Amino acid sequence: MNSKTKSFTERVFQSAAPIWEKNHLHPFVQGIGNGTLPEDIFIFYMKQDYVYLIEYARLFAMGAAKANTLDTMAKFSQNLHETVHFEMELHRQYAAEFGISRKELELTVPSPINLAYTGYMLNAAYSGTLTDLVACLLPCAWDYREIGLLLKAQNGDTILSNRYEKWIHMYSSNEFISMSQWLIELMDNLTKGLPEGELSRLEKHFLTTSRLEFLFWESMYRQDSWPI
Ligand SMILES: Cc1ncc(CN)c(N)n1
């Protein structure tokens, strides 16, 4: 397939492949899949991810504000609702199991990488177009879906006795898959016919947030927080 017939998401799926492969093989991700990830690391991640998701949900709210059609506005608002009420409920449930209150979750101080990641997306979304916003948040939704499906396929029935089963179930669920599929299709519609200069700016956003995904796994695994 030449670059003229390739859709934007086919193009970035290829260019981000080496980064995503590193995400999929990361010991944090593999440790969720086979249930060996130490609990203290998972708790650290859960708390950080909760405050990450507050900003991620804000991007959906901004998507609704910048939407060019009523259908797109409605879909962003639905994704905002699902993030706050379903995805974040997963975190609240795990937190309750580990004796962490909802308040404590919400008061988590974002780590340096967490702040760099959400700050990058929010800055691009505030100063750019709807397409910049979607280019930034697409790897978050799409690569988590890839991870959910991969871990499910890799670990078969052993998942049922895995303490992180609910996590894998969430990110391989039909609801999560169709949400990320909607974003993929939206991105292809928004980028149809754009000049190469714009496409490469959008690809840069996609690759940057893919790399930030990697740094997020890495820093959660090390439980990095502010040194001073
Ligand atoms: C860091 C991160 N990236 C993506 C997702 C999937 N919404 C998440 N929960 N956390």
What does this structure look like?
GO terms for molecular function: thiaminase activity. With 228 residues, the protein is mostly helical. It has 11 helices and no strands. 34% of the residues are buried. It has one domain (8-221): Heme Oxygenase, Chain A. The chain is 79% helix and 0% strand. The mean pLDDT is 96. The site of 5-(aminomethyl)-2-methylpyrimidin-4-amine (NSP) has 10 residues, from helix 4, helix 8 and helix 11.
Largest sheet: none
Low-pLDDT sequence parts: none
- List SSEs in N-to-C order: HHHHHHHHHHH
Shape-level CATH architecture:
Up-down Bundle
CATH superfamily: Heme oxygenase-like
The share of residues in extended strands comes to: under 5%
Question: Could you tell me the radius of gyration in angstroms?
Answer: 17 Å
Kindly report the average pLDDT value.
96
- What number of domains? 1
Q: Helical stretch count?
A: 11
Distance between the termini: 51 Å
How many beta-strand elements?
0
Morphology call? globular
- Which fold name is given in CATH as the topology? Heme Oxygenase, Chain A
